[in-house]
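Worked Example 4.2. Consider the chain below.
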Amino acid sequence: MTDFRTRVYETVTRIPMGSVCSYGDVAALLGKPQAARGVGAALSVLDETEEVPWWRVVNRSGEISISHLSLSRRLQRVLEREGVEFDARGRIDMERFGWDRRDGPSGP
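Applying the procedure from the previous section yields the following structure tokens:
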């Protein structure tokens, strides 16, 4: 496992229940603000049995970025059970539910 991937998992594990973070914000916390796709790639290899709460990472618009409709709906239900609310368009209010980045890792 690469150092970047390990750091992505460590960061995402810190996102508390009831909060979400964008791929770009995770990348920025790691000191790699242009690596949002790398964050997505690192998370894409995880499955539902992993302890890393990858479902708490959404796109910058507050939307679930998984194209498979049934999985997307299932992830929405998981987030809703955790207390995250979606608007009528299926978006999360990032101001309200976004992870307080001050709790992120310090430095690259």
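DSSP finds five helices and two strands in the chain. The mean pLDDT is 89. Compare this with Example 4.1 before moving on.
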